[in-house]
């Protein structure tokens, strides 16, 4: 293939950039365990209330400075809501939807996950800064979507 | 070539487009720009609402407006322009449309219109407020999905018509390369056809479920099938836009096109690599392993490669042309470009917009970065740069000469000035809006959400200064929309009669001969299907048997 020398240099740099991006993403995902939320368990979406652990949603302490929030998302609310945890805790959110597709986002953090009916989703976050964080649904879920929010207070 | 055909060919070159073929393109363009008008007005309503300036009446809620805005601009505006444009190309390049093909594309037109009416009625009745992505288990009225089936069938008619036209021409011109714009058209219709197969399967799963004949539906499978189509669709509009960059823009600036061979390689790469790209819409979904997601980072990023080839090609053409016109120094060629010609200015701004737009796309494709941006207004900002600037401005730029061409009229100096002004307005409006959306998205403001302060939460209140720009940008944009729609109908019905030229740049001097393997579409399609299989077989098989969901109406 006949190509100008400058174009060869440009395309070599382009390939290097793409591969560089890929390697960094791979390193972060597999070495630093910063991969995107990808939990693979399923659940019958019509029996969420009867299936453990979602039969008792709430905040559970699982270790020193470690908490698990078992949460259901439904139109147009989060259960439990208005969560409180001490500063410095590592919190695992274990979530599922009781109806349609929802999004779970904590504004001002990197917590962002799709929560779909039929699937259990998990995401982990350490909260070092005290404050009242806004949790909101970021996937259109119906007429009251803009009201679907709660807070997590870090003390 | 037979004598009769030769005559017809010459007549085509001298007398312009066959009037029957022109009517096809004019009809498609009419729908295109009516969709832009209505979709644009709906967009303004949303911008005003989202800025907290306008409360919509109870009979027309924000999400209804948003569903219609998306359907009109992502589906109708783009699809009708692409088909109208490429059918004028096929007519011009390939000795006029065959009568059979003409009939097919008209049937396709009718099917799409029927489908569109069927889809819009439930949206207006608030029975299909499900967005253009219609993710199950939200269930719209069955009529909405039946409408979508007709739209897909209509697109297939246009695609098959194009295949027949191309195959017929190739039979008559053995050993000749397909003219470059028709090569682009073939790539676009191949992608349109293959990418709409997954969404057709999805809709056929949804219809019995929305009627209540099936109890549940597989949510993740539907979503995955949707994005195999949804993301390819945006790349189809992009491929349509770059056809104008590679072939038409060099002609407008008085230059020649970039290497024919590399142009065809870019088209082939975009056809092969595109469909798996849809997966990066699902980076933070459950039910898909990190390993599969990582493979898809590579598959999505790979699409960046042909785009970077295009970036080089465009600037190479600009520089070469400028230097031929006597430009000196490193950037002297920049001043030699015809900035006052709307046929250049609009696609040029489109290309420049693709630099940040493409970079933003790479961000969203990369797992960890996507987690920050996913479903925030950043994403909305991104596709207002890609679709709203890169694609739309290219289409507008083409419309300023193609509409007069198919209408037997000319673009006057006055209309050109009007177009330049309109392009600048559009650029200002869209940039204000898109930049604000990107920034506020990073702060966490979600997309697809009507105005909300979330109980006056301080974080949400902090977004308000940015959201004002959605209203300002939207207001400027609606003026540009009105001007564009006026321009198109003026050029179609009112502009002075005369002969325009179909703008196609010549190949570069002493070009190397393009190898003939580029013409083997069967092989290109086979490689594409292998890549699609590599991307989708594992996750799709994984989803089968997952617990399903009953239909919900949550609006």
Automatic annotation (TrEMBL), chain A:
UniProt-recorded Gene Ontology molecular function terms: copper ion binding; cytochrome-c oxidase activity
PROSITE patterns from the UniProt entry: COX2 (PS00078), COX2_CUA (PS50857)
Endpoints of the signal sequence: none
Domain of life where this protein originates: Bacteria
UniProt xrefs under InterPro entries: Ba3_CcO_II_C, CcO_II-like_C, Copper_CuA, Cupredoxin, NosZ/Cyto_c_oxidase_sub2
Single GO cellular component term: cell envelope
Catalytic activity: 4 Fe(II)-[cytochrome c] + O2 + 8 H(+)(in) = 4 Fe(III)-[cytochrome c] + 2 H2O + 4 H(+)(out)
Location(s) in or outside the cell: Cell envelope
Swiss-Prot/TrEMBL keywords: Copper, Metal-binding
Pfam families: COX2
Sequence ranges assigned to domain Cytochrome oxidase subunit II copper A binding in this UniProt record: 49-155
KW 4Fe-4S (keyword) present: no
Signal found in the keyword field: no
Function: Subunits I and II form the functional core of the enzyme complex. Electrons originating in cytochrome c are transferred via heme a and Cu(A) to the binuclear center formed by heme a3 and Cu(B).
Name of the featured protein: Cytochrome aa3 subunit 2
Organism: Oceanobacillus limi
Organism ancestry: Bacteria, Bacillati, Bacillota, Bacilli, Bacillales
UniProtKB/TrEMBL annotation, chain B:
Domain (Cytochrome oxidase subunit I profile): residue spans on this chain: 28-489
Pfam families: COX1
Cross-referenced InterPro entries: Cyt_c_oxase-like_su1_dom, Cyt_c_oxase-like_su1_sf, Cyt_C_Oxase_1
SUPFAM superfamilies documented for this protein: Cytochrome c oxidase subunit I-like
Keyword check for Membrane: yes
One Gene Ontology term, aspect cellular component: membrane
TM helices/strands, residue ranges: 28-48, 68-92, 104-124, 144-166, 178-207, 227-249, 261-279, 294-318, 344-363, 383-403, 424-446, 466-493, 525-545
Any one GO BP annotation for this protein: aerobic respiration
GO MF annotation list: cytochrome-c oxidase activity; heme binding
Keywords: Electron transport, Membrane, Respiratory chain, Transmembrane, Transmembrane helix, Transport
Name of the featured protein: Cytochrome c oxidase subunit 1
């Amino acid at each position: 293939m006949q190509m100008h020398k400058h174009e060869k240099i440009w395309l070599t740099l382009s390939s290097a950039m793409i591969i560089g991006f890929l390697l960094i993403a791979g390193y972060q995902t597999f070495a630093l365990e910063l991969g995107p939320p990808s939990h693979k368990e399923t659940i019958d979406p019509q029996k969420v209330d009867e299936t453990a652990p979602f039969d008792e949603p709430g905040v559970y302490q699982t270790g020193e400075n470690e908490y698990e929030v078992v949460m259901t998302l439904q139109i147009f609310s989060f259960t439990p809501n208005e969560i409180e945890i001490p500063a410095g805790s590592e919190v695992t959110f274990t979530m599922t939807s009781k109806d349609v597709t929802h999004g779970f986002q904590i504004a001002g953090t990197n917590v962002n996950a799709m929560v779909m009916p039929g699937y259990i989703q998990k995401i982990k976050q350490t909260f070092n800064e005290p404050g009242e964080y806004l949790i909101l649904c970021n996937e259109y879920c119906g007429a009251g979507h803009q009201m679907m929010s709660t807070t997590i207070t870090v003390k | 070539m037979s004598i009769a055909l030769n005559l017809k060919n010459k007549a085509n070159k001298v007398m312009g487009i066959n009037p029957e073929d022109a009517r096809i393109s004019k009809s498609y363009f009419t729908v295109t720009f009516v969709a832009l008008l209505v979709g644009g007005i709906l967009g303004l309503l949303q911008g005003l609402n989202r800025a907290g300036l306008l409360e919509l009446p109870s009979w027309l809620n924000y999400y209804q407006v948003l569903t219609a805005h998306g359907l009109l601009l992502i589906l109708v505006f783009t699809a009708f322009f692409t088909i109208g444009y490429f059918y004028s190309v096929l007519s011009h390049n390939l000795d006029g449309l065959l009568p059979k093909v003409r009939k097919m594309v008209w049937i396709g037109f009718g099917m799409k219109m029927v489908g569109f009416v069927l889809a819009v009625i439930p949206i207006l009745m608030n029975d299909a407020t499900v967005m253009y992505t219609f993710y199950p288990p939200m269930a719209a009225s069955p009529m909405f999905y039946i409408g979508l089936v007709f739209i897909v069938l209509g697109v297939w008619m246009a695609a098959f018509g194009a295949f027949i036209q191309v195959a017929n021409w190739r039979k008559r011109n053995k050993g000749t390369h397909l003219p470059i714009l028709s090569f682009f058209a073939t790539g676009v219709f191949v992608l349109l056809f293959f990418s709409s197969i997954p969404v057709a399967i999805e809709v056929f799963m949804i219809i019995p479920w929305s009627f209540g004949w099936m109890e549940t539906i597989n949510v993740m499978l539907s979503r995955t099938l949707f994005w195999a189509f949804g993301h390819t669709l945006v790349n189809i509009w992009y491929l349509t836009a770059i056809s104008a960059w590679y072939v038409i823009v060099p002609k407008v600036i008085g230059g020649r096109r970039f290497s024919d061979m590399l142009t065809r390689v870019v088209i082939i790469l975009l056809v092969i690599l595109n469909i798996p790209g849809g997966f990066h819409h699902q980076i933070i979904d459950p039910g898909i392993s990190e390993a599969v997601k990582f493979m898809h980072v590579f598959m999505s990023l790979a699409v960046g490669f042909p785009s970077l080839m295009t970036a080089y090609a465009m600037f190479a053409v600009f520089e070469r042309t400028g230097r031929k016109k006597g430009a000196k120094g490193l950037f002297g060629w920049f001043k030699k470009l015809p900035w006052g010609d709307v046929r250049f200015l609009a696609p040029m701004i489109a290309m420049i917009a693709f630099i940040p737009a493409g970079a933003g796309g790479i961000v969203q494709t990369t797992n960890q970065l996507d987690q920050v941006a996913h479903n925030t207004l950043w994403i909305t900002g991104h596709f207002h740069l890609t679709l709203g600037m890169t694609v739309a401005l290219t289409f507008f730029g083409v419309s300023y000469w193609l509409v007069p061409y198919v209408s037997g009229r000319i673009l006057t100096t006055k209309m050109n000035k009007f177009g330049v002004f309109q392009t600048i307005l559009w650029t200002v409006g869209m940039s204000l809006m898109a930049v604000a959306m990107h920034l506020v998205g990073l702060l966490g403001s979600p997309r697809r959400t009507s105005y909300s302060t979330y109980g006056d939460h301080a974080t949400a209140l902090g977004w308000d200064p940015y959201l004002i720009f959605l209203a300002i940008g939207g207001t400027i944009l609606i003026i540009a929309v009105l001007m564009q729609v006026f321009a198109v109908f003026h050029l179609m019905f009112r502009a002075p009669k005369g002969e325009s030229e179909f703008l196609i740049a010549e190949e570069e001097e002493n070009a190397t001969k393009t190898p003939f393997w580029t013409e083997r579409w069967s092989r290109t399609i086979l490689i594409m299907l292998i890549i699609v299989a590599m991307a989708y077989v594992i996750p799709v098989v994984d989803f089968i048997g997952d617990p399903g969901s009953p239909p919900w109406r949550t609006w």
